[in-house]
Amino acid sequence: MVINNKEALVDLLLKIADDEFIIGHRISEWIGIGPTLEEDITFGSIAQDKVGHSQNMYELVAELTNTSPDTLAFKRPSSEFKSCELVVLPNAGYDKALVRHFLFDHAEFIRFELLMNSSYEKLSHLAKKFRSEIKYHIYHGNTWMKQLSSANEESKGKIQTQINELYPLTLGIFEKTPLESEIISSGYFAGEDELKSRYFAHVNELLTSYGLTYPSIDTNMEVNAGRNGIISAHLTPLISEMREVFDLESGVDW
Hints:
65% of the residues lie in helices and 0% in strands. It is an all-alpha fold.
């Protein structure tokens, strides 16, 4: 397979892999403390999918860079991670976890839908597989968002509060890197602007249908919130925690 621009492809893959790796860990933190047993099990399953997706993406990067998935996941300094701010935020209440899950997964679903047309066949193949799995994540998030926003004023108020806080942070999902034009021209991905346009049209319609309001933000605003080396203060301690087992036994499988 001919790779037109390996640097641009690696940049794209790492951005996706890092988001999946970090959000997978954040979701896994709910295992054992979820509000219901069913949510414990569901969040555990979703977390497993996310980490599995990240591993597959790291494997593609490893092939291109002559390294290993473990090195990419566990040995890079936090300053080299390209994860967006939204996925890095610490967990708080279930309302925050649910709204983040809802907001991120819709962007993720549309991203993989676009990546199904990637010129890099290995990525296109994975995108088709991941998209079918994320459908269930989307269904879960939509179901609970709709149910809690229509249950009573207290539950609706909690969801609306989290929308007000987290919705503006979704702009960080679409942060461009200096290789954006090469990513598009090589046919690897349609680009962050295309993803962002589809995302806000879709999510805004859903939120309105649930009787929720979304903050007024400038969706054309450029942000610098994770993709280009300016990282959240929460990222370094999180990565240190995630590496504890690997640091103790570097040959362990994950």
